[in-house]
């Protein structure tokens, strides 16, 4: 398996370069507990007010 941070950095880079592209492998990567943990830790929690 690829290192967690390497995958997340590549996803971030690709999403910035290809704004209109649909990333079909993203769901598969989020099934890995280590990637899910790091990805959700980095996403800000939105207020529901």
Provide tags for this entry.
about 50 residues; 3 helices; about 0% strand
What does this structure look like?
The chain has 49 residues and is mainly alpha-helical. It has one domain. Helix content is 59%, strand content 0%. It has three helices and no strands. α1 packs across α3. The radius of gyration is 12 Å and the shape is globular. The N and C termini lie far apart (40 Å). The relative contact order is 0.17. The mean pLDDT is 75.
Secondary structure blueprint with pairings:
Layout: H1 4-17, H2 26-30, H3 33-42
Helix pairs in contact: 1-3
Keywords: Nucleotidyltransferase, Plasmid, RNA-directed DNA polymerase, Transferase
Protein name: Retron-type RNA-directed DNA polymerase of Ll.LtrB
Organism: Clostridium perfringens
Q: Return the average pLDDT rounded to an integer.
A: 75
> What summary fits the major beta sheet?
none
Give helix and strand order, one letter per element, not per position: HHH
What is the number of domains?
Answer: 1
Give a nutshell description of this structure.
With 49 residues, the protein is an all-alpha fold. It is built from 3 helices and no strands.
